[in-house]
């Protein structure tokens, strides 16, 4: 594959990166803004996600209907997401549609933020919050995260709360947008068949007027808080367990070993938790995952079972955590490395996946790594690496959270 990495920075600080492949049959573009729940003031919690919705409600030159119609007219697959650390808007389509596709994305990144649209969309956000309150894992995860990162912006809820969204004023949203959605806080990523110089020139025309604000992220190191709590709810009839403990950050190369270790411990099939809990029928779900973040990270273990199996399930989870790096064979390591490498490769086969990989990469630093380099880092993980990461980040839960039915 004749893949070539290209990069440029516009005079206003907007960074443009691309993996150009003349043999590709499609092209993708994405705007990644380094802002999310952790960058919000406590009373503005949820504004980044709210803004994501508002981007599709129209611009000074397009109505909401025209935004949808213009994407449809070029047959583009498009979407957006907001996380704790970034907000992204992307689209994927045929190469000859890329200029139009990029122009639409650039336009919606400068929304009108009309009062009426704001008031109407606020109702949608509140409905979304209510919907997630019916998701047992999400309820438990948010409460555990708030406890684990208590007092730090990483404890913020991506959707916000009923109160923060209800109290939010459109003027506050406009101020937040102006300060965070700046040229120098945004990365535009491309992948697939494209002319990079022409693409950069087009972006210069579309985004050259965007201002620089020198937006910064609060990089205060999060202090981990310990807690053990149980919540009861009349909305559930199963028992849910979530454990949280420190893990490597997105900038820490030990994240590769942590990712492999989490797969060995709690992949959806063929893992330690799968064989001890899933295959035995003690739990219908038991998984582990590593979540690297900007400057920190955590390891999560989650299990769902019948209330009568709850104590046994928790005891087994603790036992598996304590022995996670024991008796690991080269065959175990090869199997997991192969599975991760396959998933990464499949994700990177299409320009859409490569574009999103590029965007995320530059949200956490300025160093470009090829997909092949990423795969090499995964394949280089050894059993000793697993033991060293487990020693540096002990698999000892700092927060243990449970959600169970109210006893009748």
Itemize the secondary structure elements and their pairings.
Layout: E1 4-9, E2 15-20, E3 27-33, H1 47-54, H2 64-73, E4 77-82, E5 87-93, H3 98-108, H4 115-132, H5 136-148, H6 162-167, H7 170-180, E6 186-192, H8 196-207, E7 227-233, E8 239-246, H9 255-266, H10 272-278, E9 285-292, E10 297-305, H11 310-322, H12 330-348, H13 351-363, H14 371-379, H15 383-392, E11 399-405
Parallel strand pairs: 2-6, 7-11
Antiparallel strand pairs: 1-2, 3-5, 3-6, 4-5, 8-10, 8-11, 9-10
Helix pairs in contact: 3-8, 9-15, 10-11, 12-14
How does this structure look, described?
- The structure is a single chain.
- The mean pLDDT is 95.
- By secondary structure, the chain is of the alpha+beta class.
- A hairpin with a 4-residue loop joins strand 9 and strand 10 (297-305).
- The longest helix has 19 residues, at 330-348.
- The protein is built from 15 helices and 11 strands.
- The relative contact order is 0.16.
- The protein is 42% helix and 19% strand.
- Helix 9 packs across helix 15 and helix 10 runs antiparallel to helix 11 (310-322).
């Amino acid at each position: 594959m004749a893949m070539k990495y290209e990069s440029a920075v516009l005079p206003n600080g907007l960074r443009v990166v691309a993996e150009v492949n003349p043999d590709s049959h499609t092209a993708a573009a994405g705007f990644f803004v380094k802002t999310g729940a952790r960058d919000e003031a406590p009373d503005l919690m949820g504004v980044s996600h709210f803004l994501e919705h508002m981007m599709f409600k129209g611009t000074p030159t397009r109505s909401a209907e025209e935004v949808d119609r213009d994407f449809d007219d070029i047959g583009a697959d498009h979407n957006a997401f907001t996380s704790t650390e970034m907000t992204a808007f992307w689209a994927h389509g045929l190469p000859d549609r890329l200029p139009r596709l990029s122009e639409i994305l650039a336009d919606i990144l400068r929304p009108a933020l009309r009062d009426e649209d704001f008031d109407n969309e606020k109702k949608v956000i509140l409905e979304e919050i209510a919907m997630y309150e019916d998701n047992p894992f999400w309820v438990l995860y948010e409460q555990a995260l708030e406890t684990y990162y208590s007092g730090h912006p990483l404890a913020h809820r991506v959707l916000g709360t009923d109160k923060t969204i209800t109290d939010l004023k459109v003027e506050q949203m406009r101020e937040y947008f102006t300060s965070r959605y700046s040229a120098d806080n945004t990365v535009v990523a491309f992948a697939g068949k494209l002319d990079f110089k022409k693409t950069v020139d087009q972006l210069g025309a579309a985004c050259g007027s965007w201002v620089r604000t020198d937006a910064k992220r609060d990089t205060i190191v999060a202090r981990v808080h310990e807690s053990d709590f149980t919540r009861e709810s009349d909305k559930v009839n199963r028992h849910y367990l979530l454990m949280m403990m420190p893990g490597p950050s997105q900038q820490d190369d030990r994240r590769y070993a942590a990712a492999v270790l989490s797969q060995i411990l709690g992949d959806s099939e063929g893992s330690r938790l799968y064989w001890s809990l899933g295959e035995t029928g003690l739990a219908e779900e038991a998984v582990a995952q590593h979540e690297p973040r900007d400057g920190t990270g955590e390891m999560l273990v989650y299990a769902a079972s019948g209330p009568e199996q709850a104590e046994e399930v928790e005891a087994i989870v603790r036992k598996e955590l304590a022995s996670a790096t024991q008796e690991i064979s080269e065959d175990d390591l090869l199997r997991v490395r192969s599975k991760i490498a396959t998933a990464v490769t499949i994700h990177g086969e299409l320009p859409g996946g490569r574009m999103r990989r590029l965007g995320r990469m530059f949200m956490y630093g300025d160093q470009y790594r090829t997909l092949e380099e990423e795969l090499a880092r995964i394949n280089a993980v050894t059993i000793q690496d697993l033991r060293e990461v487990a020693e540096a980040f002990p698999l000892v839960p700092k927060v243990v959270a449970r959600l169970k039915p109210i006893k009748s």
